[in-house]
Amino acid sequence: MVENTNQDFEGDGQHASVPESPSWPRGSRRRWTQLALIWAIWTFVGLVFTLQSYFTSYRSEQPMSLYDAAYLQFTWSYLWALATPLVLWAASKIPIEKSNWPRALLLHLPISLGLSMILTAIGHVFVWFHWGRVMGRPFSLERMGRFVVANFSEGIGIYMLIALTSYSLSYYRRYRESQLRTFQLEAQLSHAQLQALKMQLHPHFLFNTLHSISALLNKDPETARRMITRLGDFLRLTLENSGSQEVTLEQEMTFLRCYLEIERIRFQDRLVTRLDVSEQTLDAKVPNLILQPIVENAIRHGIAPRSTAGLIEIDAERRNSTLRIKVRDNGPGLPGHRTSENMFKKGLGLANTEKRLEQLYGAAHLFDLSDHPEGGLLVTLEIPFHKDGSAAGSTEVV
């Protein structure tokens, strides 16, 4: 705030405290709440500097009255209260990130300079109206220019501090949202793992697996032992990456390959699988346990009801910055009369799969169920192609 002013209105400058103001929220109710908060903070700032100016000048040769001090300081406080939403808007439109901070600062400099000079000029008019007009001094553009030159730099500092406060609160909010999202993802992963275990240990699945093992013990002990081994591997792999939200596609295919071997033993010649996974996609990160529920759905609804051989095809390829995975069966396809509700009721885990993708990638993913031109259901999954480290181990995809 302006500490003092002489009869030519060339004060010692402005010294302001910056209000802590959150970034501009959406919604009229929150907007009015924020405006009230901005006004209240600047009112407090004006009161503090009013008392400071009054007691500082109390022992001077020309002491300032409490009214004069209040008029001077609250003029600057409320001018900046009116300008604060504009500063917050500018900060929201010119985000400062690691890659663009020089450009952002260059954009802020002229804005802060122009706004500071405008507010300082308006402040001079209010000061003249209070003192100069009463003292019979005519309004002078030259005098206003000297006043602006003497005081505008304080406004640049105020602008930068308001913008910095906005950025700090924005980064803190994003950090808290990221924390909350991480907690939600961890909860979602735990739910997905439990859901996968529930599907994998579904009484029907487990009964069929054990029944197949029992039937093979006498006539084909080697196949029975292999099936028991694969069932053990299947359960172990389910829990192996229990703490990981994402795994490499190679790791995901290892788990899926184990699952398919069990199902091939169960269905024998009735299940044919074709996997076409590009080598350049094996290191890509995918959500943990994302493919098994899709394949489980294909087997349950596309293969199990058939008396003839059924086919499941799994393709994975990279398309620029996107990883596309397609799972197709040659079953009956989608029901004739379908809604989003009964579509997701069709297969175990599909609704949960969609929720996980939404949590992980937001609008940057695609999860689509459609009828394949050659018959059957086609599930298309697209997520951003990214690698976080190298893939662990090497797996033969069959």
Highlighted features:
398 residues; Heat Shock Protein 90; 2 domains; two-stranded antiparallel ribbon; 7 strands; disordered N terminus
The Rg value, from CA coordinates, equals 34 Å
Shape: rod-shaped
The H-and-E topology, N to C, reads as HHHHHHEHEEHEEHHEE
Give the strand order, joined by hyphens, for the main sheet.
Answer: 2-4-5-7-6
CATH class of the largest domain, anyone? Answer: Alpha Beta
Explain the overall architecture.
The protein is built from ten helices and seven strands. It has 398 residues and is of the alpha+beta class. It has two domains: 28-180, no CATH class; 201-384, Histidine kinase-like ATPase, C-terminal domain (Heat Shock Protein 90). Strands 2-4-5-7-6 form a five-stranded mixed sheet. Strands 1-3 form a two-stranded antiparallel ribbon. A hairpin with a 5-residue loop joins β6 (366-371) and β7. The N and C termini lie far apart (75 Å).
